[in-house]
Amino acid sequence: MQRMLHEETILKTCLEKNRITVGNIFCYDTVTSTMDIAFGLEEKETKDRTIILARQQNRGRGRFNRIWYPVAGALYASLVLTEYDFQLPYSMLASYAVYSVFKKLKADVSLKWINDVVWSNGLKIAGILTEEQSGRTVIGIGVNLNNRSFPEKLKGKATSYFKETGKKISPIDFFCFILQVLVPLLDTVQDEGLQSILRQWETESAVKGRKVRVINESGEVRGVVEGINRNSGALILLVDGHRKEIFDGSLFYE
Ligand code: BTN
Q1: What is the pLDDT of residue 172?
Q2: pTM score, two decimals?
Q3: Which of 1, 109, 215, 233 is deepest in the core (most CB within 10 A)?
Q4: CB neighbours of 20 closer than 8 A, spacing ≥ 6?
Q5: Is 115 within 8 Å of 182 (Cβ atoms)?
Q6: What is the pLDDT of residue 202?
């Protein structure tokens, strides 16, 4: 697998300019999945905050083992963490970082529980997958940036920054922006706890008080969201008056 040294230099320069410290940076043209590369790194290559970036994936994965379809122009990245608290809701923090970058670009996006970033028309523009294995936490970030079209299966479900605005943005620059939000956020949360970011996520996602339907492996739940807890679970007041915490699933507004 050929490394793309020029891309690595661009990202390194951007991060240094913004005083963001990361571990190693590995940029590739095509990989199976940036998650596979991250977990396959040797111990000595795996400093905290090591980055894997690819222009294309041919076996990308999403939550619930779904396929993350390869579409040219998207950002495919993984961030390897080795020194943070394993219990943090990493996906929620990463989705907040992606959302913040889009907001800075004045893009019309919102956060959707559990960790999706969606355009105002409800179409998904980014997804986050966090996996943990043998002392490594890997946050996988997929963002539809310059994608011009999508496979048939994603029609009516996904969109890209380019499709919505007609503008292009370099995936490397976008990832550098993400890290400028995410790295300080991880440090703040590690030092000061989750409280303020949870409240911010709750407010920005406007999920609190919404009538929802959540579908997950255990079935379907209907009710009103009372809040988001520290594990990024949604506390739902059910139609029958009982309360239930849900930690995963697909959420639909009613
Ligand atoms: C989801 O919404 O289901 C999460 C999608 C996560 C996709 C990203 S793309 C980069 C990284 N590599 C993968 O194979 N998956 C994540």
Answers
A1: 98
A2: 0.94
A3: 109
A4: 176, 179, 180, 183
A5: no
A6: 87
Residue 87 pLDDT grade (very low, low, confident, very high; cuts 50, 70, 90): confident
Q: Is 27:54 a contact under the CB 8 Å cutoff?
A: yes
Whether 142 lines ligand 1, by a CB cut-off of 6 Å, is yes
Residue 86 has pLDDT above 80, yes or no: no
pLDDT tens per residue across span 149-190: 999 999 999 999 999 999 999 999 999 999 999 999 999 998
Residue 174 CA to ligand 1 center (angstroms) comes to: 16
Residues β-bridged to residue 204 = none
What 3-state class would DSSP assign to 79?
strand
**Helix (H, G, I), strand (E, B), or coil: what is residue 31?**
strand
Assess whether the C-beta atom of 35 lies below 6 angstroms from ligand 1.
yes
Identify which of 35, 68, 111, 137 to mutate to test ligand 1's pocket (most ligand atoms within 8 A of the CB): 68
User: Tokens 């571990």 label which residue?
Assistant: 23
Q: Is 233 in the pocket of ligand 1 (CB under 6 A)?
A: no
Map tokens 């690819």 to a residue: 54
Does ligand 1 have an atom closer than 6 angstroms to the CB of 171? no
Q: What is the Cα 100 distance to its own chain's centre?
A: 12
φ/ψ of 90, rounded to 5, equals -60, -40
Q: Whose CA is nearest to atom 2 of ligand 1?
A: 127
CA of 142 to the centre of ligand 1 (A): 5
CA distance 211 to 223: 6
